[in-house]
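Checklist before submission:
- one chain only
- standard amino acids only
- sequence pasted in full

Submission:
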Amino acid sequence: MENLETPKKIETKFERLKNFLETHKNSIAMVFHRHAEHTNDKTQPDEFRRLAIETDIDKTIEAAGLIDFDLTVAYSVKSLRSFLTAYYLLKPNDSISLDQESQILQYEAIHSGPMKNKIRSKKELDYKDPTKFSFFEELTKAFNENKMLEFLVHHSDEYVAKGEDISAYTVVAKDIAKIAQTYIRFIPRWKNLSTSKFNNKNLFRTFCAREMVYGCFRAKITELVSGIEERDSFVKYYDKNLSQKDIGVIIIKDQENLVLFDGFGQLSFTSSILEKI
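Returned file contents:
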């Protein structure tokens, strides 16, 4: 008689992330994600391009089950699509509107209502407008060829050296390192609070930004820890899987030890690595 084995269940990226977080308690988790898909309505300024919710906001909501609302603050670039993505990650049961005006009203309410201290803008996440620089033409070409991170890693620093004020590879990596260093300084206090008041839970900080932000940081850390060959393997993975909206996490375990986690894998590193960027 044929022996039929039960098919092995394939973990989703959210299940993998949940299992990873459960092995790292009493830590600070920095969660990086891209905004959900938005419309390309050219009649609206870039800041007010609305979410096209029917596409992939469900993935953002699914991810919300991993985060403790009371112990989370969300950071975002200053745009409607990013703020609302951060909002639905924190409040996945709230109603969602496809209407442009309703989304703008909700966006404005976040800035003035009870959620204003839960969702904040952060300048380190800002994307510098490259359209007036020669860098932009080459970036667009790389994006169309699905080689955006490869271009940023290998060539964008050259444009900074020529005086172009852009969000280049090392610039972006340094900005994220600065954010991480803030939480590294806070981790001793959090460990005491977590142990005494929060049952060893993690403190969450989420960051909604353009896709290259986490990619640049991850590539730079991989370069410094594992070498250029492994960095380039990550870059190829990231460019190939960009449409999958990977979620990247930095776990701060203590003042010395950190762990990166994403669809490519895990990478442990020390806080001294951040000083080398």
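Reviewer check: The chain has nine helices and seven strands.
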